[in-house]
Amino acid sequence: MSRINKLIALQDEIIELDFMKETQLQTKLASLEKIIQEGLYARGNRVNDFELIHLNNEKLKNNFLSKLVNNKSLLFFFSRNTCNSCIEEEMANISQIKENMNPLDIIVVTDYSNEREFRVFTSNYDLNINFVNLLNKDDAYSFFGSSPIVIVVDNGLMMLDYFKPLSGDIFTKEYYRTLVVKHFKNP
């Protein structure tokens, strides 16, 4: 192959890579736009007062989400169908977030089908935050998807902020930083 043909082939590869990057960026922006729209729609709605199993409680009666929320809480919802890499990434984010707020204001809600699965999940993370599991799994089907959901609620379980994190996205870390300052830091 002549030198000119090699240069033309290289130029074609560069154009193809640029097109792929542009397409990926457009896809990410479309996802981000959808997430922002969902968040705007969700604000002002109330989260169900789910009945929960708290990791530290032996008694399971009258254990509702509203009893864990003080003034405001940051809720992370993980379905048992959420991929491990998404959970790992969000747990790393939680570890960083909790350094800048009261860890008791962070609540991780899961929908594992039994207590053993729930305990296995929580044993992987030494974060000193609230881990709870839904008692009634039927509640999960109307609320959970396979993606993590992050919600800030007040003590009436009103959604103040709603977000679906994007894996590996720089906007997610910035969103968390802004979220903590907006809702959990006193000026």
Descriptive report:
With 187 residues, the chain is of the alpha/beta class. The protein is 48% helix and 17% strand. The chain has 6 helices and 6 strands. It has helices at residues 3-42, 65-68, 84-97, 115-123, 137-143, 170-184; strands at 52-54, 72-78, 106-110, 130-134, 149-154, 159-163. Strands 1-4-3-2-5-6 form a 6-stranded mixed β-sheet. Strand 2, helix 3 (84-97) and strand 3 (106-110) form a beta-alpha-beta unit. It is elongated, with a radius of gyration of 21 Å. The mean pLDDT is 78.
Topology, element by element:
Elements: H1 3-42, E1 52-54, H2 65-68, E2 72-78, H3 84-97, E3 106-110, H4 115-123, E4 130-134, H5 137-143, E5 149-154, E6 159-163, H6 170-184
Parallel strand pairs: 2-3, 3-4
Antiparallel strand pairs: 1-4, 2-5, 5-6
